[in-house]
Amino acid sequence: MELLPRSPGEFGSSRYWDRFFRQRGQRPFEWYGAFPELCPVLHKYVRPRDKVLVVGCGNSELSEQMYDVGMCEDIVNIDISDAVIRQMQERSGSKRPKMSYLLMDMLQMDFPDAQFQVVLDKGTLDAILTDQEEATLAKVDKMFAEISRVLQVGGRYLCVSLAQAHVLKKAVEYFCREGWVVRVHQVASSGDKQQFVLPVFVYVMTKFRKIPGSAPQILEICPEEQDKPMRVESAERLVAAVKDRQHYALLCSQLSKTPCGEQVSLDLCDRESGRPRYTLHVVDSPSVKPSRDNHFAIFIIPQGRETEWLFGTEEGRRQLAASAGFGRLVTVALHREQHYEGMAGIQAELSGKVMELAPPGLPARQQVPFLSVGGDIGVRTVRHCDTSPLSGEYVVEDVKGDGTFYFRRLIFLSNRNVVQSEARLLAPMPLPGQKKRRKDKKKPSPAEPPVAIDKSYLCCEHHKAMVAGLCLLGGPDPLPAPLAVLVVGLGGGSLPLFVHDYFSQAHVAVVEIDPSMLEVATRWFGFSQGDRMRVHVSDGLDYVAKLAAEAPAQYDAVMFDVDSKDLTVGMSCPPPAFVEKPFLQKVKTILKPEGVFVLNLVCRDAQLKQSVLATLREVFPLLYTRRIEGEVNEILFCQPSPECQRDPTELGARARVLEEALRQPGHPWDSSYVLADMLQAVKIL
Where is this region: Disordered (predicted)? Predict the structure, then answer.
């Protein structure tokens, strides 16, 4: 500890460094890694015939090793410490005759202009730029000006640094103003996490003649795993890219030492596009007793199934990790914008990276298994991508489910982990590489649906509960005839389609604010309008308000399945305006006295949820709730009169009678959908 300075300013003092090197003796002091780690980067920018200047050389072995391996011999080393210069002259003088050590201040060098092809700095800039005081910044400007002066045009300033944000920003901004090309390399780690947790970087600043006017900046970064540089558009983006790599290094260090109490999530991005390619979640299971073979495993989530409860929620992943029987499980989700070469290709691509997330105590040379469902990476086919002025970017895709069936999904990319609408396809699509039975069968065009939609199957559990809520309607018969239903929120159209197709007496009006969704539902989800089905492109708030004023008490059922575009609110369905008291009173106005208002509520904010429930109770005297297992969704059934209340036995009986009436000849019914079961978990609030 006595070797450390009393203040950061002493890093620029020759007296401090004389004392430092006298106390340390002959032992080399290596700032930021040794020659083997730096060699791959230095080899790209230092040629054998180059004249190299090393500023702030200290007693590092770097120059000696560069000389000894033949990388370069014409090396001049300077330092402000007389003690270390004499020490290094004694150590290298006779062994390396072409290399010299000079006592010199790099802020005021004696060399003529354009003397060197390379200036090498290993930690010196970091030692000087310890703060952002005016005097410190002036000293750094002087250092950079001297380096610029002694470098030839086309010469390289190589600065080895930990790349603190203020240090990197200062270097980048200075040399960009001078018209230099700036490239930042991340140095490959030696695996020794004890010396430095943070990664080491090398700034490569290449000198060009300054062009009058504003020349375009050239800024690049080279991550450690690749040679090809990636262009970035600004100094801020370059600093941010370096910061991301520093955070990742800190995370890996933390994970290698202690189990993680909470699940850790991170994205691995594509090298070319910079877009996320893999999303990883690190899940530790303290209950699993460690043995040689169950420390660590990787689980590849099949494409298109990342939104399922088991893979898309913390509790689901926790159960997955526990059932897999590994102390640490890393789940890997694949992104729809990316192409993957099967399980073997993914394993080859990820093997090195995921080992950086290995748990403490993993035996050396332990083989880490890659797991998946059924041993494959699943199937995902993007059918349609577009952008709506109201809903933003969205995608329609077909994915292989857990079994032989395929499903079509609508996903808003602003909330890509939520399936907005889903429908089952009637005929399974062929697996990739599967041979066709007949040569005359044409491959489905990506622009058109390959098969019909199974309208008898409701994929979403909350839709099943919403339909079951129709059993609450009054009267001696299971359902009134005719049945007037208003659905606010179209999506893919599965809910209104099911009501239309199975309730032959139903007349369904749908309100959808986004005309793009009507086009999507019609083209991709088998939706169509007719005498008993009409879509009104309108804001649901305005449409209901107009109905309340002009035609009250006309609907037997009103259903709200509307998503919120504001992701900052803790309620993603419906938008807050749809559950404000004045608007709910309008909803009550358009309901018949024995009607039912069915609301899909998705609210993660407990306080907000209680407020919504309290407001609903103020407007509707009778309120039932049905929670959807494994999901945040909660279906609320609201009725305008307490006289509509039914006991569970009566509800179950009505549900069974209604289901029998709906099972029409030639009209298939999903056997797993039992209306009475849907109502068993209904509770009165």
Answer: 429-449
CATH topology of domain 461-684: Rossmann fold (3.40.50)
CA distance 164 to 308: 40
Alpha helix (H) residue ranges in 266-341: 309-312, 314-324
Distance, CA of 309 to CA of 600 (rounded, Å): 18
Q: What is the pLDDT of residues 33-64, one digit of tens each?
A: 778 889 999 999 999 999 999 999 888 889 99
Name residue 197's amino acid. Answer: V
Which tokens go with 20? 């430092």
Calpha distance 611→554 (Å, rounded)? 28
E-strand ranges in 15-150 read 52-55, 75-79, 100-103, 116-122
Closest CA to 79 of 56, 109, 52, 108: 56
Question: What is the per-residue pLDDT for 293?
Answer: 77
Sign of the alpha-carbon dihedral angle for 336, 340, 344, 347: negative
Q: What does CATH list as the number for 8-250? A: 3.40.50.150
Q: How many angstroms separate the CA atoms of 574 and 571, rounded?
A: 7
Query: What are the backbone angles phi and psi of residue 631, rounded to the nearest 5°?
Result: -130, 165
Position 671 scores a pLDDT of 65
List Cβ<8 Å contacts ≥24 apart for 411-418.
411/307, 412/563, 414/565, 414/567, 415/567, 415/572, 417/306, 417/307, 417/312, 418/307, 418/572
Residue 338 CA to residue 624 CA, distance in Å, equals 44
Given a cut of 90, whether residue 509 has pLDDT beyond it is yes
Residue 136 in this model has a pLDDT that exceeds 70: yes
What does the block give as tokens for 378?
A: 């699943």
Strand order in the sheet with 380-388: 380-388, 392-400, 406-412, 421-424
Contacts of 479 (CB under 8 A, 6+ apart): 470, 473, 503, 505, 658, 661
pTM of the model: 0.71
**pLDDT for position 400:** 85
- For β-strands 219-222 and 181-186, DSSP reports them as parallel
Is residue 418's pLDDT more than 70?
Answer: yes
Cα 604 from Cα 597, distance rounded (Å):
22
Q: Which of 480, 488, 482, 492 is nearest to 531 (CA)?
A: 482
Does residue 502 surpass a pLDDT of 90?
Answer: no
Mean pLDDT score of the chain: 84
Residue 100 and residue 76 in contact, taking contact as beta carbons nearer than 8 Å: yes
Distant-in-sequence, close-in-space partners of 399: CB < 8 Å, separation ≥ 6: 303, 304, 305, 378, 379, 380, 381, 406, 407, 409
**What pLDDT, in 10s, does the model give residues 77-132?**
999 999 889 999 998 888 999 999 999 999 999 999 999 999 999 989 998 998 89
Could you tell me the two tokens for 51? 């004249």
Those residues with Cβ within 8 angstroms of residue 660's Cβ, 6 or more apart along the chain or in another chain: none
Highest averaged pLDDT of the listed ranges 150-159, 496-505, 617-626: 150-159
Tell me how long the chain is.
Answer: 685
Domains of the chain by residue range: 8-250, 258-361, 461-684
